[in-house]
Amino acid sequence: GQSLEQPSEVTAVEGAIVQINCTYQTSGFYGLSWYQQHDGGAPTFLSYNGLDGLEETGRFSSFLSRSDSYGYLLLQELQMKDSASYFCAVPSGYSTLTFGKGTMLLVSP
Amino acid sequence: EAQVTQNPRYLITVTGKKLTVTCSQNMNHEYMSWYRQDPGLGLRQIYYSMNVEVTDKGDVPEGYKVSRKEKRNFPLILESPSPNQTSLYFCASTQGISSPLHFGNGTRLTVT
User: Fold this and answer.
1) What is residue B83's DSSP assignment?
2) pLDDT in tens, B58-106
3) Selected residue with higher pLDDT from B77 and A97
4) Distance between CA atoms of B17 and B74, rounded to whole angstroms?
5) Nearest to B89 by CA among B66, B105, B102
6) pLDDT in tens, A37-90
């Protein structure tokens, strides 16, 4: 089966950089995804890493090391609107995802 | 607009009264799934479907049924709801394993 570990909560101030780590155990690896969820809302896709290395999308970057079963999401120039929960996820089977329990990011002024 | 539509958004019911939460997607995705979200437990998969008439259990399928008679629709059925099924439910669809999962807006279910 699959399991993912990520911190339950991270705090930071506006303008700062924060890194949310994720370690995983999975049988048959097909990539690591990240999702953002604001309170009361639906999760939305942020990024996908199928290969080792860094993927950058604007202020957000995601990194994967398959040999270490480890990835992280990096958020730069933090804004108040980035306060949300962030989930890492790995595929389970052909087309569905197993999610970590989520990291709540609190951005303060 | 590409979207996954769930209904209802909120539902309060009593123990044992059968209910159905509908889910529809307009992106022609083959793959659909249901998740429940509970505080501290994250998103847990209930059932998923790889195509019409093809469904399989996820991690927490007990007490739920699904059907996939048409590609666009994937309803979640609670034949006899119980209070431990009080949760926030999300339907999702995707093109495949490395593609984004598109979520509906969620259904907040309370079973008393």
Assistant:
1) G
2) 999 999 999 999 999 999 999 999 999 999 999 999 988 788 999 999 9
3) B77
4) 20
5) B105
6) 999 899 999 999 999 999 998 999 999 999 999 999 999 999 999 999 999 999
C-beta separation of A103 from A6 below 8 A? yes
Measured CA to CA, the distance from residue A73 to residue A62 in angstroms comes to 4
Amino acid type, B79: E
Report how far residue B8's alpha carbon sits from residue B28's, in angstroms, rounded to the nearest whole number: 22
Instruction: Work out the minimum CA distance from B71 to partner chain A, whole angstroms.
Output: 15
Count other Cβ atoms within 10 Å, centred on residue B9: 10
At residue A95, the pLDDT reads 65
> Which regions of B15-79 does DSSP assign to beta strands (E)?
19-25, 31-38, 42-51, 54-57, 65-66, 76-78
Which of B30, B48, B89, B97 to mutate to test binding with chain A, by most A CBs within 10 Å of its CB? B97
CB-based contact, B45 to chain A, within 8 Å: yes
A24, two tokens: 């995983």
pLDDT in tens, B9-63: 999 999 999 999 999 999 999 999 999 999 988 999 999 999 999 999 999 999 9
In whole angstroms, what is the distance from residue B33 CA to residue B51 CA? Answer: 11
By DSSP bridging, strand B54-57 and strand B87-94 are unpaired
Flag if B50 and A95 touch (Cβ within 8 Å).
yes
Task: Tell me the three state secondary structure of residue B78.
Answer: strand
User: How far, in Å, CA of B97 to CA of B108, rounded?
Assistant: 27
